[in-house]
Amino acid sequence: MRALKLLLGLLLAWSLATQVQAQCSQHGLRIGVIPKKNMAVLMEEHQPLLDRLRAAVNMAVEIVPASSYESVVDAIVSGGVDIAWLGPASYLLAHQRDPRIEPFASLTINRGYFTPAGHHYQALLLARRETAADLTALRGKRVALSDPASTSGSLVPNVEFSTQQGTALADFFATVIYTGSHDKSLDALLDGKVDAAFVASVRADDYLSSAKIERDTFNVLWRSEPIYYDPYVFSGSLCPELKARIRTAMLTEPEGLAAFLASQNASGITPVSHVEYAPLQRLMQDTPTR
């Protein structure tokens, strides 16, 4: 009996070792990115980072196009991608489904007109100047949100703004629409399809730097509390050896990623863990049922 137990133990150890070896012998690395702006643009901007990762892991690295935040969450949970760039709320949604999903890096943001320098950004409520000069004038108007899984484009407005105003968004505004991304919300606001929009401050800064808006194009009628910036996360099935190589590639020698960082209005990449995003869990628990 003792010999049988020993044999079973050896077989189990061999099986686990074989699984780890199989995981680390994958032939490509797949990355998912939430569609915070046009996916083709995001894929082009990430090329310097992809080149760095290809050299680090010595295998093919590609971005898997995504049409929604939810699709990227599903991909990182199912193992359809190995790394994902998620928003804080979408990371927590993924982490609820698979606690092995691990945040490991985030961008350090440059100072912008709408966003302070550092590791935090804010949700903004922007309104057309001819439409509203204060929040009272927005009651009964049309507002855009981005994606149901967006932090600054859905979660924070639905909880923090609604709590401060003492009413749900659907009661404060006559019409609440989801556009699919922050850029689509900004475009809808510019085109007059909505009267106001909740967007990430970093996306407003990007529109300003690309001359799509001026500083006085919109009134900023509300700002959220600071939100820790978007994490890059590992899937639960990625092996430790690859995680270590990826960490080193992304968190060292930032000068080699200058083009990528410039495209994101960032000055560097900093290590993160679940700790930075845990406070957002309370907001998610308080999110009203729509």
Automatic annotation (TrEMBL):
<comment type="similarity">
    <text>Belongs to the phosphate/phosphite/phosphonate binding protein family.</text>
</comment>
<protein>
    <submittedName>
        <fullName>Phosphate/phosphite/phosphonate ABC transporter substrate-binding protein</fullName>
    </submittedName>
</protein>
<keyword id="KW-0732">Signal</keyword>
<dbReference type="InterPro" id="IPR005770">
    <property type="entry name" value="PhnD"/>
</dbReference>
<dbReference type="Pfam" id="PF12974">
    <property type="entry name" value="Phosphonate-bd"/>
</dbReference>
<feature type="signal peptide">
    <location>
        <begin position="1"/>
        <end position="22"/>
    </location>
</feature>
